[in-house]
Amino acid sequence: MLKRKYSNKPDYKHTAKYQAKTEYVNNPDFNGYVTIFRFDEVQKPLITTYNHKEYCLADSGYIWLQTLPTNEKYCLTTLIDNKLNIIEWYFDVIKNQGLIDGIPYFDDLYLDVVVSQINSTYLLDEDELQDALDKNIITKDDYNNAYIVAHDIIENKTNIEHLINFSFKYLHYMLEKFE
Length: 179
Description:
By secondary structure, this protein is an alpha+beta fold. It has three helices and ten strands.
């Protein structure tokens, strides 16, 4: 079964306290759901390593800005530190999206694309995608479509300047919702 992720909960198990707000946006540059998570308190920081360098992705005071565009096969999460510096952009490749009781969700297709501020792009979790295929959790079409979407993201959605402008526009928009 695919992992279903809900927009009102961060996908981070060590969260002690957080605030979340979701809004539907219909603008010329974006149509879909925007969710902001403000981590007030975490039990343990989330640390990852790329190219032998550690990055903190979640800690007290950090923000995750999630955008789920309508009729697209990805969800973009912008990870922001407690000084409002963007750490990275994380694209989940998805199979489906929808609403349950007014809460957006997506069904994760395992494959992910990460773009760092230093303009490095990583394709992640190919082993998880292959494992899902081998265990008949997904079909061969799902497998192939995941790669098609991931390569489209890499080719067409990883312009750093655009990502920065887009992320800060919707970050400030959502921060106003908390005031």
